[in-house]
Amino acid sequence: MPKRPAQDTYSAVDAFVEATLFAAPDEALAATVAATAAARMPEIQVSAPQARLLEILCRAVNARRILEFGTLGGYSTIAMARTLPPDGLLTTLEFDPDHAEVAWENIEAAGLADMVDLRVGAALETLPLLASEGAGNFDFVFIDADKLNTPAYFAWALDHTRPGGLIFADNVIRDGAIVDPEADEAAAAQRTFHEYLAEEPRVTATTIQTVGSKGYDGFTLAAVLAG
Q1: pLDDT score, position 3
Q2: What per-residue string of b and e applies to 109-124 under the rule 16 or more CB within 10 Å gives b?
Q3: Strand, coil or helix: what is 61?
Q4: Tell me, what's the pLDDT at 23?
Q5: In angstroms, what is the C-alpha Rg of the chain?
Q6: What's the order of all strands across the beta sheet hosting 65-69?
Q7: CB within 8 A of 53, min separation 6: which ones?
Q8: CA 224 vs CA 2, 12, 23, 191, 196: distances in Å
């Protein structure tokens, strides 16, 4: 059996991809990373290649309405919001008001304030308000918040995403802990999430393992089916 490369190799490959495919500087995202670090926030935003994947997926479904669970410093928010048409809107949900303040400064600096609706508070408390406002028919949903509630976030998103839309849930592998029935609650929630997907006829989904500068993890991508 071939020897698995070390983490240094995974990080070096990410660095190579960024140096070749991302040669032109992305000032908005670079400034967001710097601001997040300066605010001493967790530097757990998606990597540049992952952000590009989100952009590609949003463009692939011609997204006009995007929902994001977990704003953090606004890195992925900015990456997705700038794919929107002039009348598009990205709604992003952030629990921590300090994080939301930094994120909003980054979003404004990127010139995207008119494209983003940032809601502060627990997502499960914000979602009923969104529903009462008629939010729905999202084209793309990105779930990257507290991992215990991934199944609940996905279930709500599925009810409010149009047929043909995509739902992307990040950090579902948990460094492989998803296969361990005795693992922590976050990993157990991802097992529950996958069991739910297996029984849900309204989506077709797959989970892809990833390695890179963010370590070993993975994401689930689900396409919403008609009817």
Answers
A1: 66
A2: bbebeebbebbbeebe
A3: coil
A4: 76
A5: 17
A6: 116-120, 89-94, 65-69, 138-143, 161-170, 217-224, 203-210
A7: none
A8: 37, 35, 34, 20, 14
Tokens of 32: 């967001």
Tokens of 164: 């043909």
HSE of 130, CA atoms in CB hemisphere, 13 A: 28
pTM attached to this predicted model: 0.94
Sign of the torsion formed by the C-alpha atoms of 119, 161, 59 and 50: positive
DSSP three-state, residue 91:
strand
* Total residues belonging to the chain: 227
Report d(CA 37, CA 148) in Å as an integer: 25
Per-residue model confidence as pLDDT tens digits over 114-161: 999 999 999 999 999 999 998 879 999 999 999 999 999 999 999 999
